[in-house]
Every structure is written in C-alpha cells, then in structure tokens.
C-alpha cells in the first residue's frame, strides 16, 4: 500500500491535540504531499520538519503542517517547541517499538497535521497530548484502524465532541 491514514484526539481544554496524518512512500502521493508541504509555505502556515533536537530529524522524515493559522509568536513557539518535540518523539518511538518497520524508515515519509489552539498555555500538556495523539495516529494508520466494521458498528452511536448540538 502506498498510503496509510491515521487520526487521533487526545486531551482536553485549550491544549487538546488532534492529529491527522498520512504515511507513505517517498515516490507515492504522500511523498508528493510531503514535498509540497515543505516547498509551499504561507503566512501563518509555516510547515516544519519534526526533529528531536536541531540536526537530528526523525526517520521517516516527517513534515508538520499547521491545522490552524498561527497568529503570533506564542503559538509559533508552541508549534516549534513542545508540539514539534512531541511529534518527533512519537515517530522515533513508533520506529523503536516496531509500529513503523525500521527497515522502511528511510523509504517512508509522514505528513502530520497539528492543531495548536490560540489560547493554549500549558506547554507540558501540549507536549503530552500531541505525543500521545501522534503515537495513536501512527498506530491507527499502520494497523488500518478503525476497520470498516468498527466504523459501521459505531456509526449510529458515536458522539462527536465538537458537533455543536
């Protein structure tokens, strides 16, 4: 398969983390999306590589895309700090744990959508929630979760936390 898709929501309050991601080969559609995300930056949507520390980018190479417009330095620092480290650590741990096969880490790329609420204040929660949401998203993507049957089983009883009614 050339594309795996995962999603997870973790936490609460303004620090809530919602991750949407795609994992796929460099020469497939996810590779194209990865290159476009790095090449096409715009005001308020500064995409960045996930790094454990400067000069130590994760494998599979992971680009983080903002799901909301970054409107100030506070949000930018949260994206380039606790959220970036959380995503990077989750990718690294997923490879170490075998969720992403180590022998495929150089051939795959990840496009990871990250949500940072403009009113988020607690960097520790931003890290913890984004770490877990990224780990869960990767596990879901690589495991094909939810399955079609799981989705069907929950379609009439699911309650979306932000549906508004």
Report on the architecture of this protein:
The protein has 165 residues and is an alpha+beta fold. The protein has one domain (3-140): Ribosomal Protein S5, domain 2 (2-Layer Sandwich). 38% of the residues lie in helices and 22% in strands. The strands form two sheets. It has a five-stranded mixed β-sheet, with helices on both faces. Strand 1 (3-10) and strand 2 (17-25) form a beta hairpin. Helix 2 packs across helix 3. The radius of gyration is 16 Å and the shape is globular. The chain starts with a strand and ends in an 11-residue tail after the last helix.
Sketch the major β-sheet: 5 strands, mixed
- Strand order within the widest beta sheet: 1-2-7-6-3
Mean pLDDT score, rounded? Answer: 96
CATH architecture: 2-Layer Sandwich
Percent strand: 15-25%
Q: How helix-rich are the residues, as a percent range?
A: 25-40%
What shape does the CA trace take? globular
CATH-level-4 superfamily name: Formaldehyde-activating enzyme
Characteristics of this structure?
single chain, alpha+beta, Ribosomal Protein S5, domain 2, 5-stranded mixed sheet, two-stranded antiparallel ribbon, 22% strand
How is the secondary structure organized here?
Layout: E1 3-10, E2 17-25, H1 29-39, E3 48-49, E4 51-53, E5 56-57, E6 61-66, H2 73-96, E7 108-114, H3 123-143, H4 148-154
Parallel strand pairs: 6-7
Antiparallel strand pairs: 1-2, 2-7, 3-6, 4-5
In short:
The protein has a single domain (3-140), classed as Ribosomal Protein S5, domain 2. It contains four helices and seven strands.
């Amino acid at each position: 398969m050339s594309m795996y898709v995962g999603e997870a929501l973790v936490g609460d309050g303004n620090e809530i983390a919602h991750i949407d991601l795609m994992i796929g080969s460099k020469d497939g559609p996810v590779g194209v999306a990865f290159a476009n995300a790095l090449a096409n930056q715009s005001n308020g949507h500064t995409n960045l590589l996930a790094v454990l520390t400067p000069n130590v980018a994760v494998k599979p190479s992971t680009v983080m895309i903002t799901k909301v417009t970054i409107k100030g330095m506070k949000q930018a620092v949260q994206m380039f700090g606790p959220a970036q480290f959380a995503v990077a650590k989750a990718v690294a741990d997923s490879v170490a744990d075998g969720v992403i096969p180590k022998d495929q880490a150089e051939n795959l790329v990840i496009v990871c959508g990250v949500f940072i609420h403009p009113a988020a204040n607690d960097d520790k929660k931003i890290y913890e929630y984004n770490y877990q949401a990224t780990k869960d998203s990767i596990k879901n993507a690589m495991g094909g979760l939810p399955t079609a049957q799981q989705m069907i089983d929950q379609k009439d009883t699911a309650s979306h936390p932000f549906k508004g009614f």
